Each structure stands twice: as C-alpha cells, then as structure tokens.
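subagent[fold] <- orchestrator: predict structure for attached chain, return tokens only, no commentary.
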Amino acid sequence: MTRFGDDPHALPGRDDRVLVLGLGISGEAAARHLLRLGAAVTVTDRSDDAAVRERAATLPGARVVLGGSREAEAVADAD
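subagent[fold] -> orchestrator:
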C-alpha cells in the first residue's frame, strides 16, 4: 500500500481505506471518485437531515456514518 505522503502523485487504490468528512457537494464528489478508484470509503457527516441522507443513498459501496455523536467511531474504524 502506498502512503499518500510518500508520493504526492499517488492515488488511493483497492488496498486503501479513506475517510471523507462531510457529505456536502464536494464530499459526495470525492467519495464517488474514491469509490471508482476502488478505495474502501467511509463517509461521515455531522448532520442527519433528509438532504444528507439522500446524498448518502447515492453512494453504494461506501460506509456512511451520519450524526455527530458517531463521527469518532468512524474515524477509529478507518484507522
């Protein structure tokens, strides 16, 4: 597995786990891109409102953790 700090041009791949913080427009786009590259993606967002749940539903294959109280759990699981 390549550590991103070792090669500034490295992209995540199949053996990499990535945590995306926030499911806004850019977080959703980042998660989609990372999933296409084959990374194991966990997405977390502080909110649990309808708009965020709709975005989360469009990310098949990603682990999604909504609601601020569980963000620490998502970070711990991604390590």
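orchestrator: received. Logging for downstream: The CA atoms of residues 47 and 67 lie 5 Å apart. The first strand starts at residue 17 and ends at 21.
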